[in-house]
Amino acid sequence: MEVSLQLYSINSETSKDFKKAVEEVSKIGYKGVEFAGYGGLSADQVKELLAQNNLYSVGSHCGIQDFEVNFSEILNFNQSIDSKYIICPWAKVDTMEDVDHLVQVLNKCGDIAAGENIKVGYHNHDHEFVTINGTYALDLIAEKTNGNVILELDIFWVLYAGIDPIEYIKKWGKKVELIHIKQIDDKKANVDVADGIIDMKKVKEAAQYTKYFIVEHEEFDKPMWDCIRNDCEYLKQI
């Protein structure tokens, strides 16, 4: 199982020394990274940093306002660093109007990005499992977006919302091209991948169409780098 790391997981270190933190990610054994900011580096500097550490860019998390206002800029940046995806990590989806606006933005940007062989996606938390006219908001997003827009399914938040992540992966099949591997325990805490209640082997089996598995780890009950290393080593075994 080839795994990448969402760099937001180690923001306490990237905020101190971005290059050094990325170097450590490579040394641990991750093959790719997903960005949530670039440490003040230019696209050329990011590309060089990745090459020096034998890493690739799965993609970047960019706020909804970037999709609405600055999409050409973030598309150019991600094309320059050979990203495969540009992901919206959060949006307001309380009403059908909210959902329709998000879908319109994602579809428009997805069509533009397709010209650079990049896909656009949406990353869930738990609030997307609010029901609108009897349907989960995340289902509406998946139904209404076109083929240039994918789901990045965060399985921690799926289960946090009381939904079986294995069945949800199966439900949306080809739409789920990215999965955030983020583990949860019976107290709804974020723990090491090997220590929680989501069966990662079953996740992998269900994710027949998933292109990249991306570790995200935000809460630590032991030294941060130990947790990041434990996650990588466990996932490579399965």
From the structure above, extract its key features.
TIM Barrel, alpha/beta, eight-stranded parallel beta barrel, two-stranded antiparallel sheet, about 45% helix, 11 helices
Give an account of the 3D structure:
The longest helix has 19 residues, at 96-114. The protein has 238 residues and is of the alpha/beta class. 43% of the residues lie in helices and 20% in strands. The chain starts with a strand and ends with a helix. Helix 6 (96-114) runs parallel beside helix 7. The model has no long low-confidence stretch (mean pLDDT 98). The chain has a single domain (3-237), classed as Alpha-Beta Barrel (TIM Barrel), CATH 3.20.20. It is globular. It is built from 11 helices and 12 strands. An 8-stranded parallel beta barrel has the order 1-2-3-4-5-8-9-12, surrounded by 4 helices.
Question: How do you describe this structure in short?
Answer:
It is built from eleven helices and twelve strands.
Task: Record the SSE blueprint.
Layout (H helix, E strand, L loop, with lengths): L2 E4 L4 H4 L3 H11 L3 E4 L7 H10 L3 E6 L2 H6 L1 H10 L4 E4 L7 H19 L4 E5 L7 E2 L2 E2 H8 L4 E6 H6 L4 H8 L3 E6 L1 E2 L5 E2 L8 H7 L5 E4 L8 H14 L1
Helix pairs in contact: 6-7
